[in-house]
Amino acid sequence: MAASLVRRDKKSTAAHLKADLNWTDNSSGVRQLQELLDSVLNPEKPAADTEALDWCKCLIAGGEGFEEFCKTVRSYDNATLCGLVWTANFVAYRCRTCGISPCMSLCAECFNNGDHTGHDFNMFRSQAGGACDCGDSNVMRETGFCNRHRLRTGENVPSVPRDLLLMSEMVLPRFIICIIQYLRDGYTEPDTSTERDLQKVLQQLEPQISFLEELTKMGGAMRTVLTKILTNQQIFKDLSMGQEENVYAKKNYEKYLSALKNSGLVSVEEKAQSGAAEPTRGAEAGAGAGALGLLGAEAPASPDESNKEEDQDGGQSVGQRKRVKLSSTAKDPSIMDSLKHKCFLEELLFWTIKYEFPQKMVTFLLNMLPDQDYKITFTKTFVQHYAFIMKTLMKSQESDTMSNRIVHISVQLFSNEELARHVTEECQLLDIMVTVLLYMMESCLIKSELQDEENSRHVVVNCSEPLLKNNTYWPLVSDFINILSHQSVAKKFLEDHSLLMLWMSFVSFFQGMNLNKRELSEHVEFESQTYYAAFAAELEACAQPMWGLLTHCKVKETQEYTKTVVRYCLETLQIWFDAIGFVDEPAPNQVTFHLPLHRYYAMFLSKAVKCQGLDLDSLLPHQEMLMKIMVHPLQIQASLSEIHSNMWVRNGLQIKGQAMTYVQSHFCNSMIDPDIFLLQVCASRLDPDYFISSVFERFKVVDLLTMASVHQNAVLDGEQERPMLEGALTFLVILSSLRIHLGMADDEILRAEMVSQLCMNDRTHSSLLDLIPENPNPKSGIVPGSCSFEEMLSAVADFKAPVFEPGGSMQQGMYTPKEEVWEKEFDPIMVVLRTVYRRDVQSAMDRYSAFLKQSGMHTTGNPWPPYKERTPLHPCYKGLDRLLHCKTLHIVIFTLLYKIWLDHSNMSEHVLCMVLYLIELGLDNQVQEDKEDEEPCIEEHCHDSWFPGTNLLSNLHHVINYVRVRVPETAPEVKREKDPPPSTSAEASNFGQNSRHLTGNWRENVREAQVFSLVAERRRKFQEIINRSSTEASQVVRPKSSSTRWVPPGTPPQLVTEILEIRESMLSLLIKLHQKLSAKQNSLSATWLEDMETNSHAHGDGITAIERILTKAATRSRQSKRSIQEICGKVSPPVAPKKNSPTDKKTMDKDERRQRARERQQKLLAEFASRQKSFMETAMDVESPDAEAAMDLGATEVMESEVLYDCVICGQSGPSTEDRPTGLVVLLQASSVLGHRCKSDETKKLPTTDDEHIYPADTCGAAHDVRLALMQRFFKDSSCLQSVSIGWEGGVYVQTCGHTLHIDCHKSYMVSLRNDQVLQGFSVDKGEFTCPLCRQFANSVLPCRPGRSTEVVSWHMPTNKKTAVLVKEVEDLQEQLGLFPVSTTTESNLSKEMESVIKDIKNTTQRKYMDYGKNPGSPDNDFLFMYSVARTNLELELVHRGGNLCSGGASAAAKRSCLNQLFHVLAMHMRLYSIDSAYNPWTRLTQVAQRRDE
């Protein structure tokens, strides 16, 4: 029967069957149809055969043409949703104004037919595909619907005639099971199949799946039929196993069952192996305990090991143990077991997953979503398969494509809050998601090496695993973030404590990942790029869910949620500290930028105080826990400075990449901002002295904070000290002044962010939107509860319209800050916090300077960063101000002011700027002293009788008389005649011993000065506070003594204690610094306070900043005002000369200013020497005061005659000394130009024939070549080399622009050039640079020897003496064998720099000119080269001076000569060689015959 039907015409057969089926008794028609379908839809036929598809189309149409049938069915479309599905790269729209879910999207047709005027929308190219949400009120507001879906036209459609879709209901189940059987048959497990095999099966099935897709587009009527078929369990049961007699169907069904075996989260084999562990599961104390147990589990050495163990001995491996525990916490055990299917939809989705989400299948499944019954069933099915999706994704070779297609589906399901809530309640969606995420991350865990590498029990994700490198976890995390955006789901999550603990254990896997260990010896061979994966993982898997939860904790009603999260954060942190073996000190040379547990805790604290009115103290742990919590975020801040100081340079560029990513706009509000806030919280509650001392210890600058001019730093090199000190002070300023989480409203935060970005550079609208940190959820045009981005932008910036450039290209329109923003809102601290590149800070300052000059507010010199007053602190954080009012900080400030005043090394303008900023913050943020707690503690435990109290205002005018310092024996402070003190300890008993030499009142005035000793005392005191209630035994358990940790392990023992007489207060130092900066002896008169205009201090340089501080101190304290007037009166008595006005300063001659600086310096040095001498005589039993006075006098005389040089970098004027040499900016060039000189004056011509040569034979080079060859034939080599110069062939020409700079300033300048990311036209690595003043190209610095001004004057003075007289003078000078000015026996900074220049000179020309003779490596070759350099430069100088060295000394060329410095450098080098006494280098150099009578 079936065979005859198959041979008949399809249309007529279909019409006949449809008529039979419409009868009341249709059994005959049903039988005929089934027989026909058995024949047509035979799965044993090849899938590519289109005959079956044609039959199906005709049967479904019931004899009509298929196109007409489609048209008829569409006329009964009752859908009220659009549901148009698109794939990747489709252009769609998103309207943030209309969207309820952030994932909402619209097709172009619905968007254009809706009213979105004035809305915040964007057009985007879809990355993963999507579907139109028009008509779905759960995802978007109805006001945004298009005309068609707003009117709900589908509701008025007439009901569908029964017979229209009758054939479809009969034929489609058979068609779908046929497709499923093809899928069953074609699938083989990945280990036995190739991707090509699966693709081949899908390719053959493409027409059938396209047909299903075509059916879905017929509208709601057909989708209803398909939904019934796909979700009907009875039809599936009848058809799934196939007929009894059908062997092929049976075999396919067995393949299907086999594929189902390992579809659960725990495979069949794993379950069998872990059967023995089953009884232990019930013994778990609870879900929370099980989850927390994960954190302390032992980990295998490598992921490979873990996998092996899982396969062989599942009960023993880390992952396996964890999974057993996890199964007890999951509320729905079904995800652990194999899947069981009850309908076609479930099996279709199963094969869709197995075949890795083919696009056609995905589109078909999504096209069905407008049908609500289907949507609910499909969502439940999707959740049921969630664990299986994850397992398949992890094994996939094309995880990127598969990820996009998973999200394509899931975003349509989980964006609907009602649906998400429904499956959360019915299918335990949250439990499944968290469990699946945990299970996924467990596959790539490794042992953490943070802190205690050997004994650590903490495990972290391995960032080099493909799972993290390829972001394989992304679709699952994306779904989790999506469902947490729904309030009802998020509240369910926050109410489920066991689930929260599970989530915390998941977050802890990222705590401390991607650990960096500082390379100390060799550069790392391979630069790992795992940090990309680490930062992406923390942002997506930890931070984004955190922001999602925070959006639902904004009102007082949700206080309990916040308290719960905070409690579990603290518990998990404590477990983490125990697991890594952390006590109180971080491991050295380690840093991780990933502390998500700290950041969860910080952000929930912030939200609790800001939005929910909770008391901060109720959410904080005990003091010791706070001390632990602050350590790792503080370590990150110190490491940022270390990285920028090039201390991590051996770790390669990737470490800089991490430092930059940490502060970058997409990450900063999830990383550096919570870290800074957490440190602010710790600082507000911990002892401020302990906190300040911890900061300087972490930044490794404790040793630098001494008043001694020389110190030893066991952990930092000299060039690293300055940037690390600057970093520590800048961090303290940021900590004290940043208000993002301490009281600023959202509007104020947005405004501050916008201003800081605009001040760095003008910005386009899009780049500015991108640079403002997301606050807090995915980027939105409107910050909730505040004014919009556009309103704020128009308030702070002016728009510069696009302009056409000369080349025809158009420059984009830019926003630039308004003038009042520069004047009142420019905040350099916010700029520093938000800059990825250091050059952006300089760019902001340059723009600020340009504004001040243009507006006339500050026209001379470079302005300093302006001081900006801060918004008031939230009452909960008032304790932060105590940081500015603690003795330790005041001692540091006093020490640094003193060191800057005396020009100690490693002090910079930036250091002074930050110190002044801290003082001003302290004056603006006063606190009440808690004297009851403070006084007894100080008297009992501390010897810091530096200051009477903690208030900065009262400490400013407190005078420090004497200070004891520990210095190396070679330091200038050490007096050789004095016996060393009996002890150098900082303890109380020994302090008394050291003071015994002092008599009467002086003994009381001597201060304990070395800051780290004081800090250690503070540390000890604080430990006592922490352990006060503990027993003695428990105190002994602590591994380190607080006082000993401050002494570096390798400190040389030759440190001695010296006592300095200071007699200064902070106010007096500020006034002296004012004089120093203004270069005036009497810069502040006794009455200047009365004359001062208070409003003129807003913008200016360091002088303005000091005046502003002094004015504030005077207005807030009468005692300070009296002190200031008294100090000014002493420094500038009434009889002193009249104070110069600013106009006088401009016209003051340069030499006059130098003379005044010199006089001031001499006076201060003499006064200091006198005080020190008098003190040492009286107090320290000095034996020979006369000798010391004579020495001081001699030093003063030398000072008078020393040459002063201006440093073009720091602007200071002073002599070049052996310790701090000054150098001349020079350009070293290889030159053989002298070899091209000719005897004849004929003009040279280009050769036109073979006989002519461009280089004639009478050149200097040719003559010298012949001469040397001839000499070497008859004389020994060393004699020949002493008789010639090779400058004509391998010379080095040294030329200068005439500007000088300190060598140490030059080194800092070179470091800044290296850090500058701007493309330069020269190679900084080769030492090349441009002169900071004139921008002339240079590549070395020639040290200037300490010399007398008379010598230099005679060098530059022109003379009319005859040559014979000059030669006689030279010979006489040579007879006077005086002491060489640079010592070659003791190594000084000057001698080191001279050696460095010699290396530069040698590197300038080719190696062969250093080994010119027959014996390579002999000293004769080196001597010849040095002599030739001198000769070359002398001859070239002669050319510049017009052929006469004696005259022309006043010419410009002579002024820029560097012969003096060059000859001294060469002379020092030549002293290393033994020269034949009969050989006179000067005579050979000048070729002047000797005329002296023997």
Approximately how much beta-strand content do the residues carry?
Answer: 5-15%
Major sheet, described briefly?
3 strands, mixed
Structural class: mainly alpha
| Rg from alpha-carbon coordinates | 42 Å
Cα-to-Cα separation, first versus last residue: 143 Å
Helix percent band: 40-55%
The tally of helices reads 68
Biggest sheet: strands side by side, in what order? 14-13-15
Regions with little confidence, pLDDT below 50 for 5+ residues: 275-332, 777-786, 931-943, 976-1012, 1028-1051, 1133-1149, 1175-1200, 1350-1356, 1449-1454, 1489-1494
Write up this protein:
The radius of gyration is 42 Å and the shape is elongated. The chain starts with a helix and ends in an 8-residue tail after the last helix. 42% of the residues are buried. It is built from 68 helices and 22 strands. It has 1494 residues and is mostly helical. Strand 20 and strand 21 form a beta hairpin.
